[in-house]
Amino acid sequence: MKVDGENPFINLGAYIRNVKTRPGGGNTPAEKPKEFPGEDKVLLSPRARQIKESKELLESVPDVREEKVQTLKAQIANGEYNVDSERIASKILKESLMNDFLLSSG
């Protein structure tokens, strides 16, 4: 149905009459609306289920590992925490080289 012009509601009455005169369109109190068998269902693919389960597992992991934090705090307080400067420097260089490579190839 095309509705345009200055007053688009003029044709609305004709549309409503048309719908009511169709079989099953009136839904008068004596008529029952059509019932659809079954119910709505959502079926997930195995991959979607796997993603959903992974997300739930990830959400169950705490953001902060309190046990590790407490261990590190105790090591720092006792003067037992040592920083491996060579390991840190190596990781910084690897990340820098990777960034340079990605920027030059993109």
Core attributes:
single chain; 4 helices
Tell me what the structure shows.
This protein is mostly helical and 106 residues long. The protein has a domain of 30 residues. 56% of the residues lie in helices and 0% in strands. It has 4 helices and no strands. The mean pLDDT is 80.
Mean pLDDT: 80
Major sheet = none
Shape: elongated
> What structural class should be given to the helix and strand makeup?
mainly alpha
The beta-strand count equals: 0
Helix content: 55-70%
Would you list the SSEs in sequence order as H and E?
Answer: HHHH
Radius of gyration: 34 Å
Intertermini distance: 52 Å
* Model regions low in confidence, pLDDT < 50 over at least 5 residues: none
The helix tally amounts to: 4
- Beta-strand portion reads under 5%
Concise summary:
The chain has 106 residues and is mainly alpha-helical. The chain has a domain of 30 residues. Helix content is 56%, strand content 0%.
How would the blueprint of this fold be written?
Elements: H1 12-21, H2 46-60, H3 66-78, H4 85-105
